[in-house]
UniProtKB/TrEMBL annotation:
GO terms for molecular function: ATP binding; UDP-N-acetylmuramoylalanine-D-glutamate ligase activity. Its EC number is 6.3.2.9. Residues 307-420 form the Mur ligase C-terminal domain. Keywords: ATP-binding, Cell cycle, Cell division, Cell shape, Cell wall biogenesis/degradation, Cytoplasm, Ligase, Nucleotide-binding, Peptidoglycan synthesis. Belongs to the MurCDEF family. This is UDP-N-acetylmuramoylalanine--D-glutamate ligase. Residues 106-284 form the Mur ligase central domain. The keyword Translocase does not apply. The gene is murD. Pfam families: Mur_ligase_C, Mur_ligase_M, MurD_N. The keyword Cytoplasm applies. It comes from Flavobacterium agrisoli.
Length: 443
């Protein structure tokens, strides 16, 4: 059997290693450059690779192709593979048959990294033999090849779900759905929503789907489509017979005739959206039979995720907050919503078709000045030019932070929450967040 891997990054190299171990003839092809450390790993494992090109003769003879999530379906080589009827799948789909571990699959437009990390933290604190993978950390396939975990917590993007055929999580979580990555879905929101719900397509009556019942897109989809999985809803506002709710500042979870209650003030993560993430993760932990005391303790000591509403430093009584991971409007909405002091907001980058109108009320209420940090800031200036008193354009992080410091007074906050992708001025959102933290430390 010939396995061709398109993309020589973390998921590609992990898949190649697992494929080789399972007796496939493996070839890795990357249209860009492969990092040196990955080349070394491929070499040690005797795996043939190429970079800066796709040699068709070596690709179109595959029995199965694993495509990295970053490669769109409209890439010429992918089109040719599909025309030839060759199966093109994601890493998750390839690795799934080679493990009998339980998997908890987590997707959503926002909150999925926090929910994934929190779920992993809950299970690990309970002493379970658990791996973390998918869109985050070490490749799932690589771990299946080298480790023996009993459970995997997997963060799954819509691109990874596009490439599944048989993958079936024991527990699926959909945190929420809002327009994102529409450029990959012909600008049709329905297609993107359907992609997210692929997570539940193979689930049976023995499996569970945890979802936000307050989320319009999720609720509508479930009204119009069927899943066999047992539904576990969570809500900030509704009273539910089953699932998770917030009642009088208490989180209440009712699953399998058992109730779990915890004061929300003891939950380390701040903000309404994090209550949702906590409800989703705790519901999964309860389904995995984690003890209530362990869940309480883990929720109260969880540190959160880097670049997601991360408190960096307080300087002259001004709090600097790194929310670089907010790459869409919905994520920035949650960030602004959680601010309770006058805020200088650093925003901008590569716009993915953003509609800034939904931020208008929050900006009026909370933002005293806006710093635009992007190559093209026209849309942001058009949207908020008349809403705030002060608007400044900069083209590097150092200037953004220095300007922010000049515009603040005691008791204010500076929030980096770009609502955009980072590729115009930075390598990725991590690079953007680290540069922000560095600039703050240099003040």
């Amino acid at each position: 059997m010939r396995l061709v891997v398109l993309g020589g990054g973390e998921s590609g190299v992990g898949t190649a290693i697992l494929g080789k171990k399972k007796g496939y003839e493996v070839f890795v092809s990357d249209f860009g450059k492969i990092k040196e450390n990955y080349k070394e790993v491929l070499g040690i494992n005797g795996i043939v690779w190429e970079e800066s090109q796709h040699t068709e003769d070596l690709i179109l003879n595959a029995d199965v192709v694993m495509k990295s999530p970053g490669i769109p379906d409209k890439a010429p080589i992918v089109k040719k593979l599909i025309e030839k009827g060759i199966s093109v799948i994601s890493e998750i789909e390839f690795a799934f048959p080679f493990t009998d571990a339980k998997t908890i699959g987590i997707t959503g437009s926002n909150g999925k990294t926090t929910t994934t990390m929190l779920t992993y933290h809950l299970l690990k604190s309970a002493g379970l033999n658990v791996g973390l993978g998918g869109n985050i950390g070490k490749s799932f396939a690589w771990q299946v090849a080298e480790n023996k975990f009993d459970v995997y917590v997997l963060e799954l993007s819509s691109f990874q779900l596009d490439g599944i055929i048989n993958y079936r999580p024991d527990i699926a979580i959909i945190t929420n759905i809002s327009p994102d990555h529409l450029d990959r879905y012909e600008y049709k929101y329905e297609k993107y929503i359907d992609a997210k719900f692929r997570i539940t397509m193979n689930q049976t009556e023995e499996d569970y789907l945890i979802y936000d019942v307050d989320d319009e897109a999720s609720s509508n989809w479930l009204e119009q489509n069927k899943t066999k999985a047992q539904l576990i809803p969570f809500s900030l506002v509704k009273t539910l017979e089953k699932g998770a709710t917030i009642n009088d500042n208490k989180m209440e979870i009712k699953i399998n005739q058992e109730e779990f209650i915890m004061d929300t003030e003891h939950i380390a993560l701040e903000g309404k959206h994090n209550l949702k993430n906590a409800m989703a993760a705790s519901s999964a932990a309860r389904l995995m039979q984690i003890r209530k005391a362990t869940i309480r303790e883990s929720l109260s000591n969880f540190q959160g995720v880097e670049h997601r509403l991360e408190k960096v430093l307080k300087i002259q009584n001004v709090q600097y907050i790194n929310d670089s991971k907010a790459t869409n409007v919905n994520a920035t909405f949650f960030a602004l919503d959680s601010m309770n002091v006058p805020t200088v907001w650093i925003v901008g980058g590569v716009d993915k078709g953003n509609d800034y109108n939904e931020l208008m009320a929050l900006v009026r209420e909370k933002v005293k000045a806006i710093i635009c940090l992007g190559v093209d800031n026209r849309k942001i200036i058009d949207a908020f030019g008349n809403v705030v008193d002060m608007m400044v354009e900069v083209n590097n992080m150092k200037d953004a932070v220095k300007t922010a410091q000049r515009l603040t007074e005691k008791g204010d906050a500076v929030l980096l929450s770009p609502a955009c992708a980072s590729f115009d001025l930075f390598e990725n959102y991590e690079d953007r967040g680290r540069q922000f933290k560095q600039a703050v430390q240099n003040l």
